[in-house]
Each structure stands twice: as structure tokens, then as C-alpha cells.
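Hi P.,

Sorry for the delay on this. The queue was packed all week, but I finally got your sequence through. Input first:
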Amino acid sequence: MFRVLALLALIALPLNLALSAGAQTTTAQQPTTSATAAADRDASDPFLWLEQVNGARAVDWVKTENAKTLNVLQKDPRFADFYASALKIGQAKDRIPAPQFINGRVYNFWRDADHVRGIWRTTSLADYASPAPAWKTVLDLDMLSKTEQKNWVWSGADCDSPSRTRCLVRLSEGGEDAVTVREFDLKSGDFVADGFALPRGKQSAIWADDNSLLVSREWEPGLLTASGYAFVVKRLNRSQPLTSAVELLRGIKSDVSVSPFARSDGQGHRALFIRRGVSFFQSETQILTAAGPRKLNIPLKSNPGQLIAGRLLIGLDETWTANGTVFPAGALVSVDLAAALKDPEHLRPTVIYKPGPRETLEGVSATRDHLIVATLDNVKGRAYVYTPMANNGWSARRLDLPDNSSIGLGAADKTGVGAFVNVSGYLTPPTLLLANTNTGALSRAKAESPKFDASGDTVEQRFATSKDGTKIPYFIVHPKNMKLDGTNATILYAYGGFSISMTPTYSGSLGKLWLEHGGVYVVANIRGGGEFGPAWHEAGLKTHRQRIYDDFAAVAEDLIAKKVTSPRHLGIQGGSNGGLLVGVEFTQHPELWNAVNIEVPLLDMLRFEKIEAGASWVGEYGSVSIPEERAFLASISPYNNLKAGVKYPEPFIWTTTKDDRVGPEHARKFAAKLASMGDPYLFYEVTEGGHSAGANISERSFTTALGMTYFTEKLK
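Then the structure:
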């Protein structure tokens, strides 16, 4: 749905990478223990020094650990081939260039062997669909990085200025969440001299009009929430210094963040909003009227999405009663924008989509006159075209797309009729279709060639029974002739949080490095995700989180019981929140696995609120400042539950120095504690890449090869 992944949320890797009533932020609660007691707890942690991310001692430790791990994995005779294959797939020329519509033209950001940091380029829609488009380079990041002596990483561009001739380009140093923002002129193809330029920071900026921005940033040192995000929004006019920007709205320190956003449609309607994140999953929305910001009377767990034909769409993550009608959680509704600007207190919503018992809304895009709505039905993709009708009504028709596929919505032309739809599966390479939303006709725009031989494999959807009796679906990709003798090398992956759904996705490197070698791959749709709507996510919030871990263990036990695999040949993998998941499974069920790949993880759940953006996720995990929640976090925290004398499998733990979202601190401390107990482990830290596997294709391919070498060594 329209989720605030302020990942700011966490990302859902295998590294791709956004909610609860009454959720509390860290600073909204007063600690029940004294400051002295809290300090004593911290002082008892012998590895706090590893939280000094760039401290000399910590950096030396990382270098030593990296050398030890590379001496094991990089010297494995299979590594070189794995890396070469992953790199070849990552740099393949026939990868589908992800399209973005700007003024009816297609734009794309592209990396390959010749463009390591990447180029931003453009072509016409008709040319894009041709076998060999004549791309025109708009911005060359390799050249810019060389000129400015920076390792620039592309973070996107906002070109939704009213005239749509200027863009706000976001650039990150090394892949961190903090960005610089610069004004770019699409006509001249260059940055605007003396144009808008916002220095590095965790910030958001949108076009208020062609000559002013709405900006949320750290306006003065320390003016940030406990989560490390801005909470003051100001209007900045052209040629005005930051110090002269005029304040529009100020949140409070206990908020997660406060940021502006804009919505516009192809018929000339435009509206500006400010979202105040009172918790990670709850937001108060202000709409900017002629009289200034006014609160939009919508539920805290709802998200204003697309604007079409003067109607504002709102995704609901909780039930809403308005104008005498009850709208269920998971529904998509619309309100008249003009009426909302005039009277934001008394809204008259109309339902567009209402989910069935095994359905959920996955995404929405809009052309000039139509919506494309993607849904999941028992974790299988569907897509529909919705058209606004008289009296605020809507008509719908389903698009004719392959069943048992993952349906992803791409860019849509808000000035025309075209919308891109991506169709793929575990064994089916992505195909990008162009939907004509007037007629419903579908034409193939792009298709990737197969990156591995899938002829001997098949995909099944199965169900395991969790500890409380809940049926947990999972997908299993395996050889057609798989013997049920417990010897199949198997990787089990899941995420289990933040309402993020795990759907069938094609991975060339996974197929080439694992499936083609006879490996089995399993994805579990455990609670905490969004596969079955808000209730599926909320079932695993805070002190209910053990259900998520029980679900995952139940899938593993089902695989073992059915003799697909056995603990000797079973490995698990998870990144970010999924890294926490497999960290918990590592400590709770060490007997079930022989390999545990822990990626950019959270692991110290008694200190996560103090590390990087951790305080923003209290709505998901709970807070140590609340006794009941602290007791639960203590019971599941992987770092705190490592015990000497337990026979753990040797894990592969990896992170990145530039991760300013989750941070490398968790992974470092977990590895160091294992070392102190004399337990075997492998640790690797990528120096750049942010909350990802590297800053470019080469770095990501290297990390992928390390992981697959590890799994092959342990499970085959």
C-alpha cells in the first residue's frame, strides 16, 4: 500500500528494499529505570567501542576481520567463477532499464561496466520500446565524481516542478541515506548556476512552485528527532540563503520525522502536504491551503497516494468511519481534492478497492485518466485498471496477465495513457509490458533473456503450520527430480516485518550460482509482512513478535519433516529486519541450521534505539523504556542471547561502514561476542554502499559471490 518506508524503513533484501495503533516513539516515554542504571548497562557491554563507526580501533578491527574472512571465502576455488558470473549478470546489456516518465519522455538511470557510478539518460517512449534505443545522456555520474573528487551515488530526482523543466537531483556520498540536493535544468542538461543547492544531510525537499521549495532538514545543529530526522519544514525561495527560509510547520522531538510531499495529476491539479510521523506507522497529514497548513481529517494509519482527475487517493491501514460509512483496513478510497482544500475536516470518501480475506493492495500508479492497481491474492499478483466515473464512482477491469506471477507497477505517464507493468517469477525472467489504460491492451516493451537454465526446476506454493495453528505459505523452488531424502542443499529466506510482502522475484545470480547447481530456494511468507493486509503485519508487532520467529521455524521444520532437506543441508538468509530474524533463529534454534547468512542486520535489540535511525522503529519493535517491551526485547535480542557452550553453526555476518540507517554496529558487536566465546564465524564489512550490498554493480556482485561461496561450502 502507500507505506511510509522511511526505511526511512528497513529494506527487504536479499537485498531487493514501507503502521500500529498506540505505537510509541522512544522520546515520548520516560525511561522507567534511572539514568545511572542505564549507564551501568551500557558500561557492562565490552564491545561498545565498536559502535564508534570510524574510530581507529574499530576500523583496524574491521580490516583484520575482513582479511580473515576473505582468506577463507575468496580463496575458495569456486569464488572466482561465482564472482565472474554475478558480475556478468549484473552488467548484462539486456537488463530492463527501469523507466521514469517526465513530460511524456522516458528517463532511466543505468550502470554497467562502462558506467560504474552510472548515467541518467532519456529517450522517447516509442524508441524505448525498440530493441536498441538511442539514449541521450543527461547526467554522467562517473564524470561528475571525477571532476568533483567524490564517490557520488545516485539517489533519484524529483522533476515534479509545476513547469516540469527543473529537477531536484539527490546525490549520496558512498550510498548513505544523507544526500546533497541540487537543481538541474532538463533543457540545458546541466546543474543550474546559483540554483537551489542543499548541503549534505538527511533531508527532503519538494517543489512548492518553480521558484520555491518546501524543505525539511537539520536547520541548526541538533534540530533533529531522536531518530535522527528533521522535524521542521520551511519554505525556501530562489536565491534565498537557508537562514532566511520561512517556517511552515514544526513537529516535536519525539516525532519520527516531519517532511513535505506533493501530489499532482495530468489535468493540472496539484496539492502540497506535510506529513508528521508521530510514530513509524502513524502520521498526521497537513494539507497546504490558502490559509496555511490545515490538518487533513484522515486516520493516523493512512497514506495519501496518487492524485487523479482532482481526486486524492488514500490507502487505509486501519478502519475509517467517515460520513456515516465504514471503510475497512486495507481499502483504497478517494476524496475530492477541491473539497478537501476547502474543508479538510469533513471529508466524503468513496471506496475504490476493498480487499478479500486473502487479498492485499500492493501498489497504485496513475495515467492521465486511469489508475493501475496491483494486488496480491494468496500471494499471487493481479492488476486492474480503475476509471473515475460520475458522482465520485469508479469502474474496474482486470488486466490479462499471467497467473502465478509477481506483478510490479512501473512508471505511468500522467500526461498520457501508458503505464508499465513488470511480470516475473522465480524461474521467469522479467518482462516489462506497456498497458494502454484507455483500452486495456498490453504490449511487450522489454524482456530480459534467461540468466540461468531453469528447464530442470519447478516452483510450488506450500503451507506450514505455525506453533499457534496459523497456516504459513511458502514458495519452494527446486529441481523437478528432487529426491526426498533430506540431502538437498536448501536456502530459506524471509523478511517478516514492516508490512513488506515477499513475492516471486527473478534473480539471475541466485539462479546461476545456486539453482543451476541443484540447490533449493525457499521464501516464507511469515507474519509481519504485508501478504495478507494490515492484520498479517500487526500480528507480529512488538511483544507479539515471537509469532514471526515461530512461523519461520515452522517452515524449516516442515521442510525437514518432508525430507526436502535436513539441518546439515539447511541454511537461512535475511537482510536488515530479516537479519534480525535469522539472528533470532541462530540463537533460538541453532540445531536447525548449518549456515546462517546475516546481512546488514539489527542484532542488539537493547540498544537499537541508540544506534543510527533505530529510534524510528519503536512502532515495530517496542522500546526498552517500557518494562514489558524491554523484557520481550531482552528475550529475543540475538546479541544478548548468545551463550557460551552452545553449539552454534558458523555464521556469515556482513554489513557496510556507510550504513547510516541500521548501522554496522550490530554486526560488529555480534561477531566480536562470538569471538570472545571462542565460537567460529565469518565477518565482512563493505566500506561503501549504505544500507545495501555495495555502491556499484562490482561491489554488489562481490558480496553476492561471498555469500554463495559460504552457502556452497556449508551445505553441499
